[in-house]
Amino acid sequence: MNPWLRTPETRLLLAHITGKSKTWWLTHPEASPSAAEQALLQAAEERLRAGEPLPYLLGKWEFYGLEFEINPDVLIPRPETELLVEEACRWLKQAPATLKMLPCLDVATGSGILPVTLATLFPEMQFAATDISAAALEIARRNAQRQGVEGRITFWQGDLLAALPPQPRSFAVISANLPYIPSETLKELPIYGREPSLALDGGQDGLELIRRLVAELRQKNFQWGLLLLEIEYRQGQAVESILRENFPTAAIQIQNDLAGLPRLAKAEMPL
Description:
Blueprint: H1 8-18, H2 22-26, H3 35-49, H4 54-58, E1 60-63, E2 66-69, H5 82-94, H6 97-100, E3 104-107, H7 113-121, E4 127-131, H8 134-146, E5 153-157, E6 170-176, H9 183-187, H10 208-219, E7 223-230, H11 236-246, E8 251-256, E9 262-268
Parallel strand pairs: 3-4, 3-6, 4-5, 6-7
Antiparallel strand pairs: 1-2, 7-9, 8-9
């Protein structure tokens, strides 16, 4: 085998550095990168061995069939978050046309994978997204441009709901993939120090941001059809209790992911 194709990671890096696809390299086993490209590849492999995540080296990663720009200012998109997109799609497809006239809101949007993906799937709808990080919002804006949906997503910089204007207060879907890893647990994980702690650290029990968002939604009298919160697999019962305490009339459900673990908290309200 061509020594430049020795691992899946090497193939991805080689394609990224040379501008030739993985398929091209696999179908041209006699080819070799230039000396300059070899040096770049070797440097990238050294960074990879040192623990730098492959998606950051590539500067992009796939989510729900779309390619997103990423860097160390934002989390790497993960397959389990696709469950949130699938549930939002299922609900929106069944929703009456009047509800689809309302915008959708994504809180703590990071690289913008949720509103951008949904905007590509529902071209008739408008979206809003917030994040406390200006650097993350810049990535999200570029991802919206990359997918051709920048004209239908409004981005607001601020903590949770703080930056949103007084109106609207009604949304078809509100989504949030908030930091939910307990602080001490995070310090023991391989991702600690390699992905932004701001987007991972959920406080002492991992629920600090979820509690705050749910309380703000109630205090500011937000209305929605469906609220979707990605959660850590041990938080299902606690998040269900938080939602029931704040929204006793909501239809609340904890949904498992493909591994059978609690992953998504849903609260449906009549609009």
